[in-house]
Amino acid sequence: MASQTTKLLFRQLFEKESSTYTYLLAHVCHPQKPAILIDPVDKTVDRDLSLIKELGLKLIYALNTHVHADHVTGTALIKTKDPEVKSVISKASGAKADVLVQPGDKLYFGDLFLEVRATPGHTQGCITYVTGDGLGQPQPRVAFTGDALLVRGCGRTDFQGGSSSQLHKSVHSQIFTLPKDTLIYPAHDYKGFSVSTVEEEMLYNPRLTKDEETFKNIMESLNLPYPKMMDKAVPANLVCGYQETTSEAC
Ligand SMILES: N[C@@H](CCC(=O)N[C@@H](CSS)C(=O)NCC(=O)O)C(=O)O
Ligand SMILES: [Fe+2]
């Protein structure tokens, strides 16, 4: 995705215990080089902040796609290290943050922005962040889909207000309607994938190519164990990842 002519710096980062992707975006032609982190993990905050420093970026937003159940978000920890950073999550999540976004809202970094789309179903408050057309280059749009849509998979729907019928509707109405070459960057990968496109998932996603009833049956028969960290992660993530070891910054 990165090229010589683009204004956008993009990095995909990985936390291996929870198989979580964190994304760093920055406007590198802007004097301040404003940057955004999507879905930071507490365990890899130092790595992420070192990279941001090395690249000379100014982090302005730390975003979550939803209240994660399998890891503690890094947003509170980031704010203790840099109080100017603003945490962001959807209003529908019921979580606390500096900025509570709703569908259609835009988060600007320089003249680039991410637009918010509501994609509930894995959790009530799941959102997808989509790059705007301010990139100034003929490059595809990018959708950060959280756990709503994974590469050749999707988020489970058996807790946190999940609903398979809602998830099917969300993906079909909010993600599969994006241009076919839109890049899909999910919050997790368990199969060795890093990226996909809308077209690929519309053709080959083993769950979401199915009609709603078949999808519902697939999701009901997954029988996945609950995430190991769920009891710790969900309460912490409702307050931006605040724990005993971090300050109360939210
Ligand atoms: N093994 C992990 C949890 C795995 C898991 O349940 N992943 C979630 C996303 S994190 S809420 C999921 O939706 N998975 C979908 C799937 O099809 O696997 C752990 O114990 O941490
Ligand atoms: Fe999740």
From TrEMBL:
Keywords: Acetylation, Dioxygenase, Iron, Metal-binding, Mitochondrion, Oxidoreductase, Transit peptide
Domain Metallo-beta-lactamase: from-to ranges: 19-188
GO cellular component term of the entry, any: mitochondrion
Membrane-crossing segments per the record: none
Highest taxon, organism lineage: Eukaryota
Intracellular or extracellular location(s): Mitochondrion
Cofactor(s) named in the record: Fe(2+)
Catalytic activity entry: S-sulfanylglutathione + O2 + H2O = sulfite + glutathione + 2 H(+)
GO aspect biological process, one term: hydrogen sulfide metabolic process
EC numbers, comma separated: 1.13.11.18
Single GO MF annotation: metal ion binding
Similarity comment: family membership: Belongs to the metallo-beta-lactamase superfamily. Glyoxalase II family.
Name of the protein in its database record: persulfide dioxygenase
Organism name: Erythroxylum novogranatense
Organism lineage string: Eukaryota, Viridiplantae, Streptophyta, Embryophyta, Tracheophyta
